[in-house]
Amino acid sequence: MSRLVLVVNGAAGSGRARHAGRHVEDALVAAGHEVIDASGGTAPDGTPDETPHDARGRARAALDDTRADALVVVGGDGAVHLGVGLVAGTDVALGVVAHGSGDDVARALGLPRHDTAAAVARIDAGLRTGARRVDATLLDRADGGHEWAVGVVSCGLDAAVNARANAQRWPPGPARCLRALAGELRRFRPYGYRLTGLDEADRPTEVLHEGPATLVALAGTPWFGGGLHVAPGADLTDGLVDVLVAGPLTRRQVVAVFPRLYRGSHLGHPAVRVHRVAGVLVEPLPGPGTPAPPPAFADGEPVGPLPLRARVVPGALHVLA
């Protein structure tokens, strides 16, 4: 029997995760596991009645008090990000029941999406046969804090679109990203950056980019934004992060290139470059007519303003997959 801490993001997937959470606990108990539910409550409209900070603290306390074998999260990429932040770099495994609107990390890990029974079966099998080890990215924030990520860290127009999409309730799913992009393009100008590659010992190697750019994504997994194939070559087991730099692009060029993200064919555009490195330092480099980049996002969740240092830690995450 394994001891599991369960955290359900009741707002994920327009409330689907809240309903799935009830079945997840019953199924895991029926499979012979002990389950400690560390989920918060929900408001009358179905949204969580606690902040992400509260949810993280509740889950951490449960993990510390119970000496759990695994943390199981039910929700979307935000729930996965919370879970990665709690168990990366430890021996506690992560189980994912994907019921969000994007589920890009679950897609990258080959996990079931919107299929509770299949996801629970994967978790149960992983508990019995052993977890899979994958890479995670450790982020050093501008405020001196640290944060873990496993998917894509957005630092450019992609981050600005993420922020706007998070503030919108309509339309559901990936179409929200398109609406947010249209809103951001009204005022868009390429941002200024200096990107410096880092080796495995966190030493600078080369300047990857200096000057204006439109999109800067640090990809541990191939997808973000609900299925946008931003980094087709990204691999969670190679010890590297794919640093994608696009631009500078005009508004018209952004509109032309954006649809190609769904197929991954944007990599053939002459203004798109990919660098594979063990780590990267992303610094703002504003200038005349070139604004500072927006605050960064990781796995769809806010991280904060640049500069940001990202270092891949090979095998830092145990996943029940």
From TrEMBL:
Its cofactor is Mg(2+). InterPro entries: ATP-NAD_kinase_N, Diacylglycerol_kinase_cat_dom, Lipid_Phosphate_FormReg, NAD/diacylglycerol_kinase_sf, YegS/DAGK_C. One of its GO terms (biological process) is phospholipid biosynthetic process. Keywords: ATP-binding, Kinase, Lipid biosynthesis, Lipid metabolism, Nucleotide-binding, Phospholipid biosynthesis, Phospholipid metabolism, Transferase. It comes from the Bacteria. Residues 37-56 are annotated as: Disordered. This is Diacylglycerol kinase (ATP). Residues 1-143 form the DAGKc domain. Belongs to the diacylglycerol/lipid kinase family. GO terms for molecular function: ATP binding; kinase activity. The keyword Lipid metabolism applies. It comes from Cellulomonas marina. Gene3D superfamilies: 2.60.200.40, Probable inorganic polyphosphate/atp-NAD kinase, domain 1.
